[in-house]
Design brief:
heterodimer, A: 312 residues, alpha+beta, 3-stranded antiparallel β-sheet, B: 330 residues, 5-stranded antiparallel β-sheet
Chain lengths: 312, 330
């Protein structure tokens, strides 16, 4: 059976538009209770004490569950990625910010939320541990105390430099692309014969890597210029070439010698002097190929990909 | 994917009996098309797969007037054959312009002859209109995105292409197919193996269900013949042809004494062009003769918007091939 070509009514459309659809919070059962979760406000350490008396005293609260009285759960066995995280509320360790440390159960959601913000948790935060002596270590508070400081702050500021001072206009990476193509005048076949990319990427940190990145983008540009097209079937809107047998990307035989030259100087606008060489390998490649086809044939092709049938 | 039974028969007779006796059974050889159609596209769903890959139908032997090619010979093996390279080099070229090395190491010659069309509408089971898959349902490709489709032997009922490269020089050479069925063996000229679709695109060839291709007899060209296979495609490797031409000529005293010509990428079946051969034989090579041969090769094309360019492209490719073989032209 196929549903192609026939519009399908969304069964939940009218419900959502009129507001008649029930949401999970609208669902109620007799004697239903509501829970609110209390999360850790530190990233690492141990819970020293949890005062739940005040929370338990809030009107409507039925229970406050912490690691002291939560049921003990087994830990799932190790998988391919190692041990899974421990179940919540199993002991007093805090392993990450926002970890669940208590569950408050009440008659209404409002009561549960109110109680969850009542009470006090005293915890000890993580410690700086000297390398080679995992038993030792002191907390940030202890480090400050040892240095006679109540707090430690560091202020800094940064203002974009003035291009006039730098003698350099702010810019991203840019490049010039040189392309030579050969076009069969009778059969319309296009062969990209040679490509040179001249790139100002600021300071190049790893020339081999940057060069490979630009070559990869340039090959992508060949695909953009003369192969790649997502064809929609006009009758159904479906993609009519949704396999790599039908959607063409360049193969090795389509890729000529590609040269990459890095020019320019370190960018004085950025601390590392880099401009980045991400997309710059691709940018301009298809336009340069189209220009080369124009130069070779006198025909300005304005829709990509440029294919044999357009050049006959 | 529908589950299927897998059987590996001991000899060809057992294989033929298994498939002939079960309408839901199918042969499996190289599998390079069959497994796509079964496992990925889901448009061929045999209940029994009969694996013939270990039957003794592999290898190339010299006969009095040509080569007998076992149906399970791989494309790569045939391309490596010394006689093929010397006496029918356009067959070697057609083989090596097809698919990829990995596929050619798996794909068999028998399977190549019976490969199914690449038409995406045929291979997409969610497309309702496909006369080849569901007779009478119409043809989505005629009104859809057609480019890799046929212009010869085509009609509003079906424009699905027979995409084989190998078959193009083989129909030019008048190869003969050996078949083994439940009632014995017979031979069919390759040119008559295929059925131009008409209003029944589901009928692709004259084989009975269960008939097995065991070998192909391929005549050799005269030693003095020049041949070539030119394949035009968007990409320079690993793509089916938009247009291809297999041609061979024998020149005697500046006159074309004999000619073989066939086209790929344009026909619902591998397209032999006898009228073009007739134009050439007895003529002196030249632009007018080549243009006339090209026109004779492409008669009564049925085109849609996406395939109209194939008419001039095919004609120009024929001319180019003839220029190359006679070292004339630009």
């Amino acid at each position: 059976m196929t549903r192609l070509g026939a519009p399908v009514d969304r069964m939940d459309g009218p419900l959502k538009v009129t507001g008649a659809a029930p949401y999970p919070s609208d669902v109620a059962y007799p004697d239903m209770a509501y829970a609110a979760l209390v999360r850790s406000t530190i990233a690492a350490g141990r819970i020293l004490e949890i005062d739940v008396d005040a929370a338990r005293a809030v009107d409507g609260v039925q229970a406050v569950i912490t690691h002291l009285d939560a049921p003990r759960l087994g830990r799932a066995p190790a998988g391919a990625l190692g041990l899974p995280p421990p179940a919540p509320l199993q002991d007093n360790r805090i392993l990450h910010y926002g970890q669940y440390v208590a569950v408050v159960v009440a008659d209404t959601p409002q009561q549960a939320n109110e109680a969850a913000h009542t009470g006090r948790i005293r915890s000890r935060s993580g410690r700086e541990r000297p390398a080679g002596d995992p038993g030792a270590g002191e907390s940030y508070v202890e480090i400050l105390a040892r240095n006679g400081l109540a707090e430690l702050t560091a202020d800094g500021e940064s203002t974009p430099p003035d291009p006039a001072e730098l003698g350099m206009a702010p810019s991203g990476a840019f490049a010039a692309k040189f392309v030579e193509v050969r076009v069969d005048r009778d059969l319309g076949r296009i062969r990209v014969a040679r490509m040179v990319s001249v790139v100002d990427g600021g300071r190049i940190l790893n020339e081999k890597l940057a060069r490979s990145q630009v070559i990869g983008g340039t090959v992508g540009g060949i695909g953009q210029a003369i192969f790649e097209e997502t064809i929609a079937d006009a009758g159904t809107g479906r993609i009519a070439n949704a396999t790599f047998g039908d959607y063409l990307v360049p193969v090795n035989a389509d890729v000529p010698d590609i040269d990459v030259v890095f020019v320019g100087e370190p960018d004085r606008m950025t601390p590392t002097g880099t401009k980045g060489v991400g997309e710059i390998g691709l940018a301009g490649t298809a336009a340069a190929i189209a220009n080369a086809v124009y130069h070779a044939t006198g025909r300005r092709i304005r829709s990509l990909p440029i294919t044999i049938d357009q050049l006959l | 994917m529908r589950p299927f039974a897998y059987t590996r028969p001991r000899d060809a007779a057992e294989a033929v009996a298994l498939v002939s006796g079960d309408p839901d059974a199918a042969y499996l050889a190289g599998g390079t098309t069959q497994l796509d159609l079964m496992l990925k596209d889901g448009i061929v769903e045999p209940r029994r797969v009969v694996d013939i890959t270990r039957l003794p139908l592999r290898g190339v032997v010299r006969t009095d007037d040509g080569l007998r090619i076992g149906a399970l010979t791989t494309m790569e093996e045939l391309a490596a054959d010394a006689v093929v390279a010397q006496r029918i080099p356009f067959v070697r070229e057609a083989l090596l312009f097809g698919a990829s090395t990995q596929l050619r190491n798996m794909a068999t010659i028998g399977g190549n002859l019976l490969q199914r069309t690449r038409c995406r509408y045929f291979r997409d089971p969610t497309v309702a209109a496909c006369n080849k898959r569901a007779p009478g349902s119409g043809c989505a490709a005629v009104h859809g995105a057609a480019r890799m489709h046929a212009i010869l032997g085509a009609s509003e009922h079906c424009i699905a292409l027979h995409a084989s490269d190998l078959c193009v020089p083989l129909v030019a050479l008048d190869a003969t197919v050996h078949l083994q069925g439940p009632d014995g063996q017979r031979q069919v000229p390759l040119r008559q193996l295929y059925v131009v679709p008409g209003d029944r695109p589901d009928i692709e060839h004259v084989l009975e269900h269960g008939e097995l291709i065991t070998a192909i007899d391929v005549p050799l060209l005269p030693a003095e013949a020049q041949s070539t296979y030119l394949k035009i495609r968007d990409r320079w490797s690993y793509e089916f042809a938009l247009v291809s031409v297999a041609a061979a000529l024998v020149l005697e005293d500046g006159v074309i004494a004999d000619a073989w010509l066939a086209l790929g990428g344009v026909g619902t079946v591998p397209w032999w062009a006898p009228d073009a051969e007739q134009v050439l034989v007895g003529s002196r090579p030249g632009a007018d003769v080549f243009a006339a041969a090209a026109r004779a090769a492409i008669t009564d094309p049925f085109t849609v918007e996406g395939t109209a360019f194939k008419v001039p492209l095919a004609e120009r490719t024929v001319v180019r091939v003839l220029e190359q073989l006679t070292e004339t032209g630009a």
